[in-house]
């Protein structure tokens, strides 16, 4: 077995993701990718990815871990007060934060924001759809909660999307503006305040 065959496709993807996140897509060369993988032959990269660097970018987006957002455990059916609902929503926020603390997901987020103009709408949807799914599941759960179901199904759906937008802003501000994967106590407090005011408006 030759040395070339010891390099897997996933190694190229992992190395490229780290480079794209730190240097940008256009700032990363195929030579750098090959060197970081460990000196694999150039032909091996094009064997795995005939369209080169752009195909690697597409694979990174397809192998993202953000689908976990749409699969988080959400159950408000036993909640009877707005205080209980607020605490449950903060627990959901913590679970969302945990997804973005994973380095691979953080790198993916940085790449998508930085390289948005290079991506097709279908590629972007691979990252945005999990957020939409999360909002839908929150809306459905709110419709089962005694503290919010009187709003009606449609209003609960809208409320679920508003709550997701609050989560998104807090996480995006931290990841993009502060370039930090750890959310501060102040950020958590701000999210809790916003949720509190939102639930009081109902």
From TrEMBL:
GO molecular function: DNA binding
InterPro entries: Homeodomain-like_sf, HTH_TetR
Gene3D superfamilies documented for this protein: Tetracycline Repressor, domain 2
Keywords: DNA-binding
Name of one Pfam family that matches: TetR_N
Transmembrane domains' residue ranges: none
Coiled-coil blocks: none
Domain HTH tetR-type: 13-57
Protein's name in the database: TetR family transcriptional regulator
Annotated source species: Secundilactobacillus pentosiphilus
Gene from which this protein is expressed: tetR_11
């Amino acid at each position: 077995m030759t040395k070339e065959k010891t390099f897997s496709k996933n190694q190229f993807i992992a190395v490229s993701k780290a480079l794209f996140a730190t240097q940008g897509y256009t700032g990363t060369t195929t030579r750098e990718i090959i060197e970081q993988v460990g000196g694999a032959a150039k032909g091996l990269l094009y064997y795995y990815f005939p369209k080169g660097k752009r195909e690697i970018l597409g694979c990174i987006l397809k192998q993202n871990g953000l689908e976990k957002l749409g699969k988080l455990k959400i159950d408000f059916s036993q909640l009877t007060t707005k205080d209980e609902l607020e605490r449950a929503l903060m627990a959901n926020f913590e679970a969302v934060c945990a997804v973005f603390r994973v380095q691979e997901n953080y790198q993916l987020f940085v790449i998508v924001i930085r390289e948005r103009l290079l991506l097709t709408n279908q590629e972007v949807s691979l990252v945005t759809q999990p957020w939409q799914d999360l909002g839908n599941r929150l809306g459905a759960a709110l419709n089962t909660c005694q503290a919010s179901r009187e709003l009606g199904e449609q209003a609960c759906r809208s409320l679920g999307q508003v709550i997701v937008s609050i989560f998104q802003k807090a996480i995006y501000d931290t990841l993009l503006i502060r370039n930090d994967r750890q959310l501060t106590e102040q950020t958590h407090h701000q999210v809790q305040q916003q949720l509190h005011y939102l639930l009081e408006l109902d």
